[in-house]
C-alpha cells in the first residue's frame, strides 16, 4: 500500500506547491542547473529523482517544515530525505557546487564591488554544541558565517563557517587567500573588525587597483592623528564605497528572514556549514531564475560536469 502511494504521489508533485515569491523552485532554469550536478548513477538502481529530492529539501528550508511534513506531502519516507542529505554532506557536495557556481559568476562579472562581513547565529539549543563557541560580545553560544558578497548582484562569492568566537580579520584573510587574483575587484568594503594594516596590504597585493574602504579604529596606545594617517595610506576615503557596507547587513537579514538560516533544528558546526551553503545555493538559484545571462554562463559548465 505504501509503495503504491509513493509511486502515485511522488510524480504528481514535480511542481512543488509554494507561494508566488518562491515559484523559482519550479523554474526550468533551476531544474536544468541542478540536473548538471545531481545526475542518477550510471549503474544500479536509479532511485528517486535527485533534482526533485533536492528541490524538496529547499522547500523544507524555505517553509520551515519537518521531514515528516515532506513525507506527508510526497509519499516518500522521511528517512529517505535524511539519508539523501547525509550522502550529499559526506560527498562534500555543498561546498563543491557552491565553489563551482560562484567561481563562474565572479569570473564573468564585469566588475566586483566586494563587501565583507560576518554574522553570528546562536545555537538552536541555546547551549554549547559541538563546534560552537561562546561569544563574549553577544553573550551567547553559537556559530559565525563569514561571507564576501558582490554588491551589485547581492550574490555570495566566498564564505566559510566557524565557531562564534573567531576574529573577523583572521577569517577575512583566509577568504582573501582563497580568492583568485584575476577577479575584477574594483573595491572592497568592510567594517572596523577588519582594520589591520597587514590585511589591507594583502588585499592590495592581490588586487592592485582595488579601492579599500575599511575605517581605522582608535587604538589607545597609538591614538595619534599621524598614526591613523599612516595606517590609512592604502585605503580610500570614497564616501560612496563606505556607504555600500550596509548592503551586507541587509543581505544577512534576508538570509535569516527569508531563507531561515539559524532556524534549523539539526545543529552542530557540520550541519550549520551545510545549511549556510544550502541557503547560499538557494540565493544563486533564485537569481538564476531571473537572469538569462547567469543561465548561459552555467551552460558552459555542462561538459565539465559530465566529465567530472
How many helical elements?
A: 14
CATH topology of the largest domain: Nucleotidyltransferase, domain 5
In terms of per-residue confidence, which ranges show pLDDT below 50 for 5 or more consecutive residues?
1-13, 303-308
Overall geometry = globular
What fraction, in percent, of the residue positions are helical?
Answer: 40-55%
What is the H-and-E element order? HHHHHHEEEEHEHEHHHHHH
CATH class of the largest domain: Alpha Beta
Name a few traits of the molecule.
Nucleotidyltransferase, domain 5, 308 residues, six-stranded mixed sheet, 2 domains, alpha/beta, 14 helices, 6 strands
Summed up:
With 308 residues, the protein is of the alpha/beta class. It has 14 helices and six strands.
Amino acid at each position: 500500500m505504501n509503495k503504491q502511494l509513493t509511486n502515485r504521489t511522488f510524480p504528481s508533485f514535480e511542481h512543488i506547491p509554494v507561494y508566488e515569491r518562491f515559484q523559482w523552485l519550479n523554474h526550468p532554469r533551476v531544474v536544468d542547473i541542478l540536473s548538471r550536478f545531481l545526475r542518477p548513477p550510471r549503474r544500479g538502481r536509479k532511485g528517486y529523482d535527485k533534482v526533485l529530492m533536492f528541490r524538496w529539501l529547499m522547500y523544507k528550508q524555505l517553509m520551515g517544515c519537518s521531514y515528516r511534513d515532506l513525507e506527508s506531502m510526497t509519499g516518500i519516507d522521511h528517512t529517505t530525505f535524511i539519508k539523501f542529505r547525509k550522502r550529499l554532506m559526506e560527498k562534500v557536495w555543498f561546498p563543491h557546487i557552491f565553489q563551482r557556481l560562484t567561481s563562474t559568476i565572479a569570473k564573468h562579472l564585469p566588475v566586483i564591488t566586494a563587501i565583507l562581513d560576518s554574522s553570528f547565529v546562536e545555537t538552536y539549543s541555546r547551549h554549547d554544541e559541538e563546534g560552537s563557541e561562546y561569544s563574549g560580545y553577544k553573550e551567547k553560544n553559537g556559530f559565525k558565517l563569514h561571507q564576501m558578497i558582490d554588491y551589485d548582484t547581492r550574490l555570495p562569492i566566498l564564505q566559510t563557517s566557524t565557531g562564534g568566537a573567531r576574529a573577523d580579520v583572521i577569517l577575512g584573510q583566509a577568504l582573501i587567500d582563497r580568492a583568485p587574483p584575476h577577479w575584477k575587484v574594483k573595491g572592497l568594503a568592510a567594517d572596523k573588525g577588519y582594520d589591520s594594516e597587514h590585511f589591507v596590504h594583502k588585499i592590495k597585493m592581490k588586487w592592485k587597483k582595488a579601492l579599500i574602504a575599511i575605517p581605522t579604529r582608535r587604538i589607545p596606545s597609538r591614538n595619534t592623528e599621524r598614526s591613523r594617517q599612516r595606517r590609512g595610506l592604502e585605503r580610500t576615503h570614497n564616501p560612496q564605497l563606505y556607504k555600500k557596507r550596509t548592503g551586507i547587513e541587509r543581505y544577512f537579514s534576508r538570509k535569516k528572514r527569508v531563507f531561515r538560516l539559524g532556524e534549523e533544528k539539526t545543529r552542530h558546526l557540520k550541519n550549520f556549514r551545510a545549511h549556510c551553503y544550502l541557503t547560499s545555493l538557494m540565493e544563486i538559484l533564485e537569481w538564476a531564475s531571473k537572469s538569462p545571462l547567469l543561465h548561459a554562463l552555467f551552460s558552459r559548465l555542462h561538459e565539465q560536469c559530465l566529465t567530472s
